[in-house]
Design goal:
The structure holds two protein chains of two kinds. Helix content of chain A is 15%, strand content 41%. Chain A is mainly beta. Chain A has one domain: Folate-binding superfamily (Folate-binding fold, 2-Layer Sandwich). In chain A, strand 1 and strand 2 form a beta hairpin. The N and C termini of chain A lie far apart (32 Å). By secondary structure, chain B is an alpha/beta fold. Chain B folds into three domains: 113 residues, no CATH class; 105 residues, FAD/NAD(P)-binding domain, CATH 3.50.50; 106 residues, FAD/NAD(P)-binding domain, CATH 3.50.50. Chain B is 20% helix and 26% strand. Chain B is built from eight helices and 18 strands. Chain B has a six-stranded mixed β-sheet. In chain B, strands 11-17-12-13 form a four-stranded parallel β-sheet. A three-stranded antiparallel β-sheet of chain B has the order 2-1-3, with no helix packed on it. In chain B, helix 3 runs parallel beside helix 4 and helix 5 packs parallel to helix 6. The relative contact order of chain B is 0.12. The chains are: A mainly beta, B alpha/beta. At the A-B interface, loops of A face loops of B.
Chain lengths: 87, 352
Amino acid sequence: MKILTCPMNGPRNINEFQNFGPLKANPDPDATSDQDWARHLFRADNSRGTLVEWWRHVPSNYFFLAERNATTNEVIRTFDPSELEQM
Amino acid sequence: MARLPAPWGNRINRDAPVSMAGAEADTLVQLPSDPNVQADRHPISAGQQVTAQNVNGSLARDCDAFMDKLGRFMLVRFYYRTFMGPTRNSWMILWEPLIRKKAGLGVLDISAPHEDYEKVNLFCDLLVVGAGLAGLTAAIEAAEAGADVILAEQEPVAGGALSYGCDGVDRLPALLARAEELPNLRLMTGTVVNGWFEDNWLPLIRGNKLFKTRAREVLLATGCIEQPAIFRNNDLPGMLPGTCVQRLMRHYGVKPGQRAVVLAANPDGYRVALDLLEAGVEQAAVVDPRPGGSGGALSAELEARGKTHVTGVRVGGDWLDCDLLVISVGYAPMWQLPVMPGPSWAMTKIRR
């Protein structure tokens, strides 16, 4: 079983986590057509290579971000969402 | 040993040799509440009922024994591609039920008594797989350096080849004593490491217990398994790998036969021949198939005969009577664990 290092709880088994898809910019709800909004909500690119994803540690209900290589399934780093503002 | 099948191969209803190491699917027997038990892996107990699985009638009077004669017509192939005709759904209504029956797998007992299967979580710095000379030495060294070590061995006794081979047997008691006195070294015998999953998560199975083990590092010292030789009738009972013969003699005190032919293509084969002499087994011949050996070109020269047990071996032109053929021709690494997570594989020749 894979281990994922939660920024708050430390290394835990992967079955304690839930994936919430890749991080993407929110489009402006007023200026976006219904079709594009649905696409934004429900379609993922499913791209190869490194991506930043939302994850949740389920027992503690803590959301965080993980940088992961989608090809090799290697987790490069995990970090708290507050670091996003500095990025 | 029971007449046994390889359901995926062509050996419908043939006897099969054993390795005494659980390395074959051909020693399956039926216990009252447990089908497909590996006979060479299962300790016997008083009053235990064991029945052969792949026979029609009894093992001694098997109504399907005539199938042995048809071996040359049964090539290795996919059943469901070969048995297509004569009509469109013949496979489903005719061939499949017939072949399932002949494949000889065991019978499930639905009223079998309930048994408990436990799960335990284990954590360690280092998991060493295989308690042979390499595994024991490595585990002891790591434990002496302060690491928390688990040493898993699938045999009931630790020591690997040291416990049955004649080379370096005297080193074993000291190693076992040292392993015993180290508090941070856990030696688990009779434990099979059943897989190797992500981030070193490994299931260890001992009897009815599953140890879900998370190791920081894994070290494989799984050793190797003896390979069979290829010749006509090479799957008759009475043909045993050299290490199997040594296990039978040293672990179980069983005299493996009365009159033996030893096929020795490496020094270990000769060592087995010496062991057999020591155990009082008469030796018909030691055959060395290597160039310059006494056997010559093997594939054309060697053949065995016998119906339910080997009774003779032909080397060159002469038939030698024997009830045991010891085969010691080479080894293959036990690499089932490392190929599971799929690292790339390479063999390196080591000069000594």
